[in-house]
Design brief:
GO terms for molecular function: nucleotide binding. Keywords: Signal. It holds the Pfam family GFO_IDH_MocA_C2. This protein has twelve helices and 16 strands. With 445 residues, the chain is of the alpha/beta class. The chain folds into two domains: 162 residues, Rossmann fold (3-Layer(aba) Sandwich); 235 residues, 2-Layer Sandwich (Dihydrodipicolinate Reductase, domain 2). It has a ten-stranded mixed β-sheet. Strands 3-2-1-4-5-6 form a six-stranded parallel β-sheet, sandwiched between helices. α2 crosses α10 and α9 packs across α11. It is globular, with a radius of gyration of 22 Å. The N terminus is likely disordered.
């Protein structure tokens, strides 16, 4: 993909006999505590707004560029940025210009899922460190390519699973490691979010200010529709991964972390659309089971979109089952335990902190997760990352496996070592996708 970035330089540079295709430059800068880190945010709708807020509270970090295919959104964010921080910020529609700007040290990626992996790889090739929103990948194959790129170019890559920075959740994990609820054999992830009828807005002309070709990037290019731009792409297979690959990545990650497992060997998944006759392609209700026979462990995962019960008080979270009790992680920053047959309340914990959003507050919120990322960048030490690139691959991969089993409607056998299915060419074809010319995720990063 370096050749694509180089050809972009050639196409857009001012004509000059001195203009040549520049080689990829790998930065080896070690930042001191007083050195300013320049950042760019890619994708400024939704979670991108949280990225802006969290980067701007980090010491000696300055957002210098905002990037989005929608210039209308960019101008809105530029205006609010000036009002909030009394600072100017440059705008770019094309992320390739951000990658080629040597004054930018780190990028945070909050674009749609189908752009995540290629953005990470391009950033690594350009010598930039990366914070990437969940899910790290749109499919399993490109998740592995992200891991390879981070290693090859020695980049700091943090995955946006901020509960890994939560002191309370870390305390819960340590309790399980110490045997507090006994031998932990099962994890259950739940995502019970209100997801209503999104209708079907049909096709329409591309609105002024949106570069729809750039928005589409690596994915198949459909006629423009408000069914996709800006949020509802989550519910279409070419761009999103359903709620198990949206909100659910926090919980798939915690299931694997808590059980201390990687990818499973047996997967089954069942669900469907039972509520709305709208344009969503993904299931509204989805139940997936991931089995680890050799480890004698199992993960259950459930997505529900509407009226439902809580489970141990949680609507989004995780429940771990041991032979001496259970441990419940509610949301992003608190846990409780119940021990024995009589369900005696045991240890519990909560981060606290002040913010309008559970996702952004305290040490375990987005601010704290970005602080961990910036510390690793300054020290050039990826070992201190709370959500390293491997979590982006594996937690996203678990969601992808469940979606593949749902779409094929059968039990699948998977080989975690080769990251391929066992004697199943049809399922193997769903481990990756075809990429549009100029936006290919490279075989050799």
């Amino acid at each position: 993909m370096k050749s694509t970035r180089r050809s972009f330089i050639k196409r857009t540079a001012v004509a000059s006999s001195a203009v040549i295709a520049a080689p990829t430059i790998i930065s080896s800068t070690v930042f001191g505590a007083n050195d300013r880190i320049n950042a760019a945010v890619l994708g400024v709708n939704g979670r991108g707004k949280s990225h802006i807020k969290s980067l701007m509270v980090q010491k000696n970090v300055q957002i210098t560029h905002l990037c989005d295919p929608d210039m209308n959104l960019l101008r809105e964010r530029q205006k609010s940025f000036k009002e909030t921080y009394n600072k100017d910020v440059a705008l770019e529609q094309d992320l390739r210009r951000v990658m080629d700007n040597k004054d930018i040290d780190v990028v945070s990626i909050a674009s749609p899922n189908h752009w995540h992996a290629l953005s990470v790889i391009w950033a690594c090739q350009a010598g930039k460190d990366v914070y990437v929103e969940k899910p790290g990948s749109h499919n399993i194959w490109e998740g592995r390519k992200m891991v390879e790129a981070a290693a090859k170019y020695d980049r700091i890559v943090q995955h946006g699973v901020q509960l890994r920075s939560s002191p309370a959740v870390n305390e819960a994990i340590n309790l399980m490691r110490d045997g507090y609820i006994g031998r932990v054999y099962m994890a259950r992830g739940i995502v019970f979010r209100w997801r209503g009828d999104i209708g079907d807005q049909g096709f329409s002309p591309v609105p002024a200010g949106i570069d729809y070709d750039l928005w589409t990037g690596p994915a198949p290019k459909r006629p423009f529709t408000r069914n996709l731009v800006h949020y509802n792409w989550h519910w279409h297979w070419d761009y999103g991964n359903g709620d198990v690959g949206n909100q659910g990545i926090h919980e798939t990650d915690l299931c694997m972390w808590g059980l201390d497992v990687g990818l499973p060997t047996k997967i089954t998944s069942m669900g469907g659309k039972y509520l709305w006759d709208d344009c969503k392609e993904v299931p509204e209700v989805l139940t997936s089971v991931y089995n680890y026979p050799e480890e004698r462990k199992i993960i259950q995962f459930e997505v529900r979109p509407w009226c439902t019960n809580t489970e141990e008080g949680a609507t989004v979270g995780n429940i771990f089952y041991g032979d001496k009790g259970i441990l419940v992680v509610d949301g992003y920053d608190k846990y409780k335990t119940y021990l024995g047959k009589d369900r005696t309340p045991g240890k519990s914990g909560e981060d606290g902190g002040e913010s309008g959003s559970e996702m952004d507050r305290g040490d375990g919120g987005t601010d704290g997760h970005f602080a961990n990322f910036i510390e690793a960048v300054r020290k050039r030490d990826k070992t201190i990352l709370n959500g390293p690139v491997e979590t982006a691959h594996l937690s996203s991969g678990l969601a992808h496996l469940g979606n593949i089993a749902y779409r094929l409607d059968r039990v699948l056998t998977f080989n975690p070592k080769s990251e391929s299915f066992v004697n199943d060419a049809e399922a193997d074809r769903m481990l990756r996708r075809d990429y549009r010319e100029g936006f290919e995720v490279p075989e050799n990063v």
